Amino acid sequence: MPLADHLRELRNRLAKGVLAIIVVTVVAAFFYKDIINFITKPLLESVGCAQSFGQLAKTKEDVHCAHITVTGLLTPFTLALKASLTAGVVVAAPIWLYQLWAFVAPGLHRHEKKYAYAFVTLGFPLFLVGGYLAYNVLPATAKVMINFTPQGAENLLELDKLLDLVTRMVVVFGLSFEMPLLLVMLNLTGILSGRRMLGWWRGMVVGIAAFSAVATPGADPMSMLALAAPIWALFFIAVTFSLLNDRRRARREDRALGDDEASELDLTPEDIDEVEAVTAGAAPELPATDRVNGYDDVT
């Protein structure tokens, strides 16, 4: 396709994806309070507050209770827009991901499409697992952080910052779970070997631990281990798969014929009479071909 046609197709694909996000965002705007309640409910329950958004009350069992506040005149509108847009991007993900795939797929070879299908098939569940882990780690982290509050002090959490924190944590946990899959894809394409990955294991263990300590908002080691332990396990699974794949690739290359190796010749003798019978007869007639300007296809 010419460049102008590529740009035109890209524009149409982007327009369809954006339109789907806008439609879902408009629908989600009518339920933005339920969305915020869904996001903040585990955190509020962990710090001893009521379960429903707008009905925050301190319980008798807990010493500290964090109250959600909204500051600023335009903050409620910004919250509604942010919650609705987040729901629009998430719910409309199958549509805009398909549009992106439909634009890229025609330029891929068959084996590249196979790898892309595997990446999407495994990548999306891994992202969901990482997001779900973040959604469950945040309440325990919030409870630990709230316990540092001095006696007599009240905890006031700004709702917009709380929403940003939950969204960022879900995205960070989800993307971190994609790292082992990326390593496997690099190995399948021949860019990275399993032996080299295995040589990185000490640095990867330390790096993943440092990343988990920075990514998790709490200072407790449990939150860090909750993120680091699954990534460690996924990394070593990726290394094991890469080593097995390299061994399979090496066996296949050993069976293949080298560039400087001569192939075996078939030296079985044939009956000469059959050949003479064919050469002695009349030459077979060639099929009629269409001629253009006096020349046939062969000419």
Automatic annotation (TrEMBL):
Its organism's taxonomic lineage begins at: Bacteria, Bacillati, Actinomycetota, Actinomycetes, Kitasatosporales
Which GO molecular function, any one, fits this protein according to its record? proton motive force dependent protein transmembrane transporter activity
Which PANTHER family does the protein's record reference? SEC-INDEPENDENT PROTEIN TRANSLOCASE PROTEIN TATC, SEC-INDEPENDENT PROTEIN TRANSLOCASE PROTEIN TATC, CHLOROPLASTIC-RELATED
**What is the name of the protein in this document?**
Sec-independent protein translocase protein TatC
Biological process per Gene Ontology, one example term: intracellular protein transmembrane transport
Q: What is its main location?
A: membrane
What keywords does the record list, in alphabetical order?
A: Cell membrane, Membrane, Protein transport, Translocation, Transmembrane, Transmembrane helix, Transport
Give an example GO cellular component term for this record: TAT protein transport complex
Q: Which family does it belong to?
A: Belongs to the TatC family.
Bilayer disposition of the protein: Multi-pass membrane protein
Subunit structure as annotated in this protein's UniProt entry: The Tat system comprises two distinct complexes: a TatABC complex, containing multiple copies of TatA, TatB and TatC subunits, and a separate TatA complex, containing only TatA subunits. Substrates initially bind to the TatABC complex, which probably triggers association of the separate TatA complex to form the active translocon.
| Localization | Cell membrane; Membrane
Give the HAMAP family listed for this entry.
Answer: TatC
Q: Which residues cross the membrane?
A: 14-32, 83-103, 115-135, 165-188, 200-219, 225-245
Its biological purpose is as follows: Part of the twin-arginine translocation (Tat) system that transports large folded proteins containing a characteristic twin-arginine motif in their signal peptide across membranes. Together with TatB, TatC is part of a receptor directly interacting with Tat signal peptides.
Span of the signal peptide: none
